[in-house]
Known about the structure:
The protein is of the alpha+beta class. It is 25% helix and 27% strand. The chain has a single domain, classed as Glutamine Phosphoribosylpyrophosphate, subunit 1, domain 1, CATH 3.60.20.10. β12 and β13 form a beta hairpin. α5 crosses α6.
Amino acid sequence: MCRWLAYSGTPIGLDELLYKPRYSLIDQSMHSRMGVETTNGDGVGVGWYGPDDQPAPALFRGVGPAWGDVNLRELARVTTSGLFLAHIRASTGTPVQQTNCHPFRYGRWLWCHNGAIRGFRRLRRDLLFAVDPELFPGVAGSTDSELMFHLALTFGLRDDPVNAVERMAGFVEAVARTHGIADPLQMTVGTTDGDRVWAFRYSSERHSRTLYVSTAVSALRALYPENEQLSRVSDETRIVVSEPLGELKGAWQPLPESSWGVVQKGADELGAFHPKDPS
């Protein structure tokens, strides 16, 4: 399907995660070890936050394979950010075009997704009609991922992200039931408002795609006091990934099945994910 990562912490160059690790996101675009497909070559995107006075995050999206995108390589080499999302796409049936590449943006919000809605072509019309009319013009592409984002916005993402995504998931499952489609939803989702990062791992069949979060930096420093990279980032630094970027023992913790987490200033949070039927 797809691979994605979210970074929050000490500002770093985008290439530090996109290109430099042994199992970087660009490496995963060619040699994914945990994805449904080994190759994720149907587009690439990165959204990042700059100075606080910028009204919205910057966005780069390309339709070619990530490993051959020279513009992305140049951008990543010179761009620094303390919060960014990056995504490599493997299409589940919708066209390879820029409007279908992640992350998706609305105002200060970014959204990326790995997974699919089973029977999406049958469900798409009913799902689209549930999008708030004021948000509907922002649906530019044809993916289930972008539609899920706009449904979450409709159900209150900007005010209560966990409740909104639970309502979105419950709504997709309710619509699928009316069409006789079992186990319709498969998702890992990363979303951010530029301050906090939320991650969700859920599937209707309770067998979700992989998702990991980096171990607390303070704990890793205690394990690896000679590691210079760990000395250069703050205790607040966290990375969420579809699959680990390296093999440092103890560095990656799996997000539990049917759960959500939020990376934020102070203590992070982890909770159980329960879809809610909005009706």
